[in-house]
Design goal:
Blueprint: E1 7-16, E2 35-43, E3 47-51, H1 58-65, E4 73-78, E5 81-82, H2 88-95, E6 98-101, H3 105-108, H4 115-125, H5 132-145, H6 162-173, E7 180-184, H7 192-209, E8 212-216, H8 220-226, E9 229-234, E10 237-243, H9 244-249, H10 254-261, H11 268-273, E11 292-296, E12 299-302
Bound molecules: adenosine-5'-triphosphate and magnesium ion.
Length: 306
């Protein structure tokens, strides 16, 4: 994959291992790196979906590219600047430009902090607002942007529903006008009835603020709905990456086929004809290395399967 001027984030050969061995006994014979030699780019203004089974390394990638938990190896170039090479001071400065929205809005909010303080905190940390009044104005504006009443700034988190809390986290994430947001299962903890509203909010913010997203999700229907391209992760490696619709209609990797066969199709006739594939326990879906080849325009597949 070659770098292009349209790419905002370029990840090269990212490796991340955990020294985890709980207790005395290793539960699995061989546990390789959680993320193994992963390379991809995210283009300006796009939403890149990242899917794969639990434990495949999605959150590890999200934390590594935002340097919350820096990679062991590899490069993460944000707008041409390799984050892994930056001094702490320069990293802090560039951090303004990317943010993370996590799955659990309850854990992200601190119970004793008023909403206004929570949303305004990044402004104070990065010394963006000059006065209290200026910060309060910006907080009110942010609350409005996420569809909440500006008067909520005085309230405490326990007074809000899950969906509203996620809106508060989103307001904080956009406070510094970032270019890039990692959304790690941002709606999984929410009621189904409000998931769509939060998705709609993320989409409209993307348009209005020209945001680029890495969207991590288990919900393949949502991924199909909002992601421009999608990467499929299996045991720490990307096995397939393609424009989302192409991936859903022309999956090539055996793991992708199984994963996507579980997604209902909104068309009743095609839904009836859909075959739900199960994983074959005797088949090895994993990839011995991480090279991808372009099997169709912009459609990348693990080299061993091409
Ligand atoms: N802090 C940690 N310490 C030790 N091992 C970890 C840590 N975080 C993740 N892992 C391990 O790394 C692997 C990848 O985990 P990760 O959380 O990135 O997966 P995920 O794809 O986000 O899964 P999920 O869909 O359940 O959120 C897993 O085997 C996990 O057990
Ligand atoms: Mg995760």
């Amino acid at each position: 994959m070659t770098a292009s001027p349209q790419s905002l984030l370029q990840v090269r050969n990212l490796v991340k291992s955990y020294a985890a061995r709980r207790g005395f006994v290793r539960t699995r014979a061989v546990t390789g790196p959680a993320v193994n030699d992963v390379s991809f780019e995210i283009r300006r203004g796009e939403t890149l979906g990242l899917v794969g089974e639990s434990g495949s390394g999605k959150s590890t990638i999200g934390r590594a590219v935002t340097m919350l938990s820096p990679p062991d190896e590899g490069a993460v170039a944000f707008d041409g600047v390799d984050l892994t090479e930056l001094s702490a001071r320069r990293l802090r400065r560039i951090r303004k430009r990317f943010q993370v929205v996590f799955q659990d809005p309850y854990a992200s909010l601190s119970p004793r902090m008023r909403v206004g303080e929570f949303i305004g905190e990044p402004l104070r940390i990065h010394k963006v607002g000059r006065s209290r009044a200026e910060i309060a104005d910006r907080v009110a504006e942010l609350l409005t942007m996420v569809g909440l009443d500006p008067a909520f700034a005085k309230r405490y988190p326990h007074q809000f529903s899950g969906g509203q809390r996620q809106r508060l986290c989103i307001a904080r994430a956009i406070a510094l006008n970032p270019d890039f947001i990692v959304a790690d299962e941002p709606i999984s903890a929410l009621d189904v009835s409000i998931q769509a509203q939060v998705i709609t909010l993320l989409q409209s913010l993307q348009r209005d603020l020209n945001l680029t997203y890495l969207f991590i999700s288990h919900d393949l229907s949502i991924v199909r709905h909002i992601c421009h391209r999608t990467a499929v992760l299996y045991r720490g490696r990307i096995v397939e990456l393609a424009p989302t619709e192409l991936l859903f209609t022309d999956a090539r990797h055996p793991y992708t086929k199984v994963l996507l066969s579980a997604v209902p199709i909104p068309n009743p006739k095609r839904e009836r004809a859909r075959r739900h594939l199960l994983m074959d326990p005797n088949f090895d879906y994993s990839e011995p290395d991480s090279s991808l080849v372009e099997v169709a325009p912009d459609h990348w597949l693990a080299a061993g399967r091409a």
